[in-house]
Write a structure and sequence with these properties.
With 225 residues, the protein is an alpha/beta fold. 42% of the residues lie in helices and 12% in strands.
Length: 225
Protein backbone atom coordinates (compact mmCIF):
# COMPACT_ATOMS: atom_id res chain seq x y z
CA UNK A 1 0.00 0.00 0.00
CA UNK A 2 1.50 3.39 -0.99
CA UNK A 3 2.05 5.89 1.82
CA UNK A 4 -0.76 8.36 2.43
CA UNK A 5 -0.23 12.04 1.62
CA UNK A 6 1.00 14.34 4.35
CA UNK A 7 -1.81 16.89 4.46
CA UNK A 8 -0.58 19.90 6.37
CA UNK A 9 -3.43 22.29 5.58
CA UNK A 10 -6.78 21.76 3.85
CA UNK A 11 -7.85 24.10 1.05
CA UNK A 12 -9.57 27.18 2.43
CA UNK A 13 -11.66 27.54 -0.73
CA UNK A 14 -13.48 25.05 -2.94
CA UNK A 15 -10.99 24.26 -5.68
CA UNK A 16 -11.98 24.17 -9.35
CA UNK A 17 -8.62 24.00 -11.17
CA UNK A 18 -5.47 21.88 -10.86
CA UNK A 19 -2.17 23.15 -12.29
CA UNK A 20 0.66 20.71 -12.93
CA UNK A 21 4.36 21.19 -13.53
CA UNK A 22 5.65 18.74 -16.15
CA UNK A 23 9.11 17.34 -15.38
CA UNK A 24 9.10 15.32 -12.17
CA UNK A 25 5.34 15.74 -11.75
CA UNK A 26 3.70 14.37 -14.89
CA UNK A 27 6.75 12.96 -16.70
CA UNK A 28 9.52 11.06 -14.92
CA UNK A 29 12.41 12.90 -16.59
CA UNK A 30 14.42 14.22 -13.66
CA UNK A 31 17.15 11.55 -13.62
CA UNK A 32 17.76 12.25 -17.31
CA UNK A 33 18.08 16.00 -16.70
CA UNK A 34 20.34 15.41 -13.71
CA UNK A 35 22.86 13.54 -15.83
CA UNK A 36 22.71 16.16 -18.56
CA UNK A 37 23.07 19.26 -16.40
CA UNK A 38 25.73 17.83 -14.10
CA UNK A 39 27.75 17.02 -17.20
CA UNK A 40 27.30 20.55 -18.55
CA UNK A 41 28.25 22.05 -15.16
CA UNK A 42 31.46 20.01 -15.05
CA UNK A 43 32.42 20.82 -18.63
CA UNK A 44 31.79 24.57 -18.49
CA UNK A 45 32.54 25.31 -14.82
CA UNK A 46 29.09 26.40 -13.66
CA UNK A 47 28.69 28.72 -10.69
CA UNK A 48 26.84 27.46 -7.62
CA UNK A 49 28.81 24.52 -6.27
CA UNK A 50 27.42 21.03 -5.68
CA UNK A 51 23.99 19.61 -6.50
CA UNK A 52 23.95 21.77 -9.63
CA UNK A 53 21.14 19.94 -11.44
CA UNK A 54 18.98 20.02 -8.32
CA UNK A 55 19.49 23.72 -7.67
CA UNK A 56 18.44 24.81 -11.15
CA UNK A 57 15.30 22.64 -11.12
CA UNK A 58 12.31 24.60 -12.37
CA UNK A 59 14.43 27.50 -13.65
CA UNK A 60 14.03 28.73 -17.25
CA UNK A 61 17.05 28.28 -19.53
CA UNK A 62 17.67 32.01 -19.98
CA UNK A 63 18.00 32.46 -16.25
CA UNK A 64 20.24 29.40 -15.87
CA UNK A 65 22.61 30.77 -18.49
CA UNK A 66 22.59 34.28 -17.05
CA UNK A 67 23.11 33.27 -13.42
CA UNK A 68 25.20 30.09 -13.62
CA UNK A 69 27.27 30.63 -16.77
CA UNK A 70 27.80 34.39 -16.74
CA UNK A 71 31.55 33.86 -17.15
CA UNK A 72 31.12 32.30 -20.59
CA UNK A 73 31.12 33.97 -23.95
CA UNK A 74 28.26 33.94 -26.45
CA UNK A 75 29.71 30.97 -28.31
CA UNK A 76 29.76 28.69 -25.28
CA UNK A 77 26.28 29.77 -24.23
CA UNK A 78 25.03 28.89 -27.71
CA UNK A 79 26.72 25.48 -27.40
CA UNK A 80 24.88 24.78 -24.14
CA UNK A 81 21.55 25.82 -25.63
CA UNK A 82 22.10 23.62 -28.68
CA UNK A 83 23.21 20.63 -26.61
CA UNK A 84 20.06 20.98 -24.46
CA UNK A 85 17.91 21.08 -27.58
CA UNK A 86 19.54 17.92 -28.92
CA UNK A 87 19.27 16.21 -25.54
CA UNK A 88 15.55 16.97 -25.27
CA UNK A 89 14.94 15.34 -28.66
CA UNK A 90 16.02 12.04 -27.06
CA UNK A 91 14.09 12.38 -23.79
CA UNK A 92 11.88 9.59 -22.56
CA UNK A 93 8.56 10.91 -21.22
CA UNK A 94 7.40 7.96 -19.12
CA UNK A 95 4.79 9.13 -16.57
CA UNK A 96 5.34 9.59 -12.87
CA UNK A 97 3.59 6.71 -11.11
CA UNK A 98 -0.16 7.24 -11.15
CA UNK A 99 -0.01 10.71 -12.75
CA UNK A 100 -2.16 9.96 -15.79
CA UNK A 101 -4.74 8.13 -13.68
CA UNK A 102 -4.87 10.91 -11.09
CA UNK A 103 -5.34 13.70 -13.64
CA UNK A 104 -7.99 11.65 -15.44
CA UNK A 105 -9.77 11.06 -12.13
CA UNK A 106 -9.64 14.77 -11.30
CA UNK A 107 -11.08 15.70 -14.68
CA UNK A 108 -13.82 13.14 -14.09
CA UNK A 109 -14.64 15.02 -10.88
CA UNK A 110 -15.07 18.23 -12.88
CA UNK A 111 -11.71 19.93 -12.25
CA UNK A 112 -10.14 22.07 -14.97
CA UNK A 113 -6.48 21.26 -15.59
CA UNK A 114 -3.43 23.09 -16.94
CA UNK A 115 0.16 22.12 -17.61
CA UNK A 116 2.61 24.80 -16.47
CA UNK A 117 6.26 24.30 -17.39
CA UNK A 118 9.53 26.21 -17.64
CA UNK A 119 10.28 24.17 -20.76
CA UNK A 120 9.84 25.52 -24.26
CA UNK A 121 6.91 24.97 -26.58
CA UNK A 122 8.97 22.88 -29.01
CA UNK A 123 9.76 20.29 -26.34
CA UNK A 124 6.12 20.14 -25.28
CA UNK A 125 4.99 19.61 -28.87
CA UNK A 126 7.30 16.59 -29.07
CA UNK A 127 6.10 15.32 -25.69
CA UNK A 128 2.45 15.62 -26.67
CA UNK A 129 3.09 14.00 -30.07
CA UNK A 130 4.71 10.93 -28.49
CA UNK A 131 2.32 10.53 -25.53
CA UNK A 132 -1.33 11.06 -24.65
CA UNK A 133 -0.55 13.89 -22.21
CA UNK A 134 -2.07 16.62 -24.36
CA UNK A 135 -5.56 15.17 -23.84
CA UNK A 136 -5.24 15.61 -20.08
CA UNK A 137 -5.06 19.41 -20.03
CA UNK A 138 -7.37 22.28 -20.86
CA UNK A 139 -4.53 24.82 -21.07
CA UNK A 140 -0.75 24.94 -21.51
CA UNK A 141 1.75 27.55 -20.30
CA UNK A 142 5.38 27.27 -21.47
CA UNK A 143 8.51 29.43 -21.20
CA UNK A 144 7.43 31.38 -24.29
CA UNK A 145 4.25 32.55 -22.55
CA UNK A 146 5.92 34.38 -19.68
CA UNK A 147 8.55 37.03 -19.01
CA UNK A 148 9.54 35.94 -15.51
CA UNK A 149 10.13 32.31 -14.58
CA UNK A 150 9.64 30.43 -11.31
CA UNK A 151 9.79 31.30 -8.42
CA UNK A 152 7.88 34.28 -9.83
CA UNK A 153 4.15 33.44 -9.84
CA UNK A 154 3.56 34.73 -13.40
CA UNK A 155 3.29 31.25 -14.96
CA UNK A 156 0.67 30.02 -12.52
CA UNK A 157 -1.32 33.23 -12.65
CA UNK A 158 -1.28 32.96 -16.45
CA UNK A 159 -2.60 29.40 -16.25
CA UNK A 160 -5.41 30.43 -13.89
CA UNK A 161 -6.36 33.21 -16.27
CA UNK A 162 -6.44 30.81 -19.23
CA UNK A 163 -8.77 28.51 -17.29
CA UNK A 164 -10.95 31.35 -16.05
CA UNK A 165 -10.25 30.43 -12.42
CA UNK A 166 -9.42 32.55 -9.40
CA UNK A 167 -5.94 31.85 -7.94
CA UNK A 168 -7.41 31.03 -4.53
CA UNK A 169 -9.41 28.22 -6.15
CA UNK A 170 -6.39 26.62 -7.85
CA UNK A 171 -4.05 23.88 -6.64
CA UNK A 172 -0.46 23.64 -7.86
CA UNK A 173 1.38 20.31 -8.14
CA UNK A 174 5.15 20.82 -8.04
CA UNK A 175 8.33 18.91 -7.26
CA UNK A 176 10.76 21.83 -7.09
CA UNK A 177 11.49 24.51 -4.52
CA UNK A 178 11.21 27.24 -7.16
CA UNK A 179 7.88 25.88 -8.37
CA UNK A 180 6.35 25.62 -4.92
CA UNK A 181 7.47 29.16 -4.14
CA UNK A 182 5.76 30.27 -7.35
CA UNK A 183 2.54 28.52 -6.35
CA UNK A 184 2.64 30.06 -2.89
CA UNK A 185 3.32 33.52 -4.31
CA UNK A 186 0.32 33.10 -6.60
CA UNK A 187 -1.90 32.48 -3.56
CA UNK A 188 -2.69 28.89 -4.54
CA UNK A 189 -2.99 25.62 -2.62
CA UNK A 190 0.33 23.80 -3.08
CA UNK A 191 0.95 20.05 -3.32
CA UNK A 192 4.60 18.99 -3.22
CA UNK A 193 5.79 15.80 -4.89
CA UNK A 194 8.74 14.08 -3.26
CA UNK A 195 10.17 12.94 -6.59
CA UNK A 196 13.15 15.31 -6.76
CA UNK A 197 13.96 17.31 -3.62
CA UNK A 198 14.31 15.92 -0.07
CA UNK A 199 11.23 16.08 2.12
CA UNK A 200 12.92 18.59 4.45
CA UNK A 201 12.96 21.17 1.63
CA UNK A 202 9.49 20.42 0.27
CA UNK A 203 7.32 20.29 3.40
CA UNK A 204 7.82 23.93 4.51
CA UNK A 205 6.62 25.13 1.10
CA UNK A 206 3.47 23.06 0.58
CA UNK A 207 0.02 22.41 1.98
CA UNK A 208 0.21 18.69 1.21
CA UNK A 209 3.04 16.36 0.19
CA UNK A 210 2.84 13.09 -1.74
CA UNK A 211 5.49 10.61 -2.93
CA UNK A 212 3.71 10.20 -6.30
CA UNK A 213 0.13 9.72 -7.53
CA UNK A 214 -0.33 6.10 -6.45
CA UNK A 215 -3.92 4.99 -5.82
CA UNK A 216 -5.27 7.89 -7.85
CA UNK A 217 -8.96 7.83 -6.91
CA UNK A 218 -8.28 7.57 -3.18
CA UNK A 219 -5.65 10.31 -3.37
CA UNK A 220 -8.05 12.63 -5.19
CA UNK A 221 -10.72 12.02 -2.57
CA UNK A 222 -8.30 12.68 0.31
CA UNK A 223 -6.88 15.87 -1.14
CA UNK A 224 -10.05 17.52 -2.38
CA UNK A 225 -13.09 16.15 -0.54
Amino acid sequence: MPPLPAIIRRPMEKLDALLFDFDGVVADTESQYTRFWNGVAERYGAAGGGDFALRIKGTPLKRILAERFAHLGAGCLAEISESLSEFEKRLSFEPVKGAVEFISAARGRGYKTALVTSSGAEKMRRAFASTGYGKLFDALVTAEDIERGKPDPMCYLAAAAKLGSEPRRCAVFEDSVAGLKAGRAAGMFTVGLLTTFPESEILPLCDAAIPDFSNAEKLAAMLFS
